[in-house]
Amino acid sequence: MPSPPADDPIDVVYTWVDDRWPGYRELLARHAASRHDLNPNRTRDNLQTLKYSLRSLAAFAPWVRRVYVVTCRPQVPPWLDVRAVRLAHHDEFMPRAHLPTFNSFAIVSNLHRLPGLARRFVYVEDDRLFGRDIDVDDFFDSAGRVRVYEALRGTPAGGARIDGASPWNQALAYSNALLDARFGRRARRQLKFAPLAVDRGRWTEMIDLWPEAFALTSASRFRAARNVAPEHLYPHFAIAAGHGVREPWLTTARHAWYQPLNNVAPLQAAGMARLRWFAPKFACLNDNFGARPRDAAVRMVQRALERWFPSPSPFEVVNGSYV
Question: Is the pTM for the entire model greater than 0.90?
Answer without folding.
Answer: yes
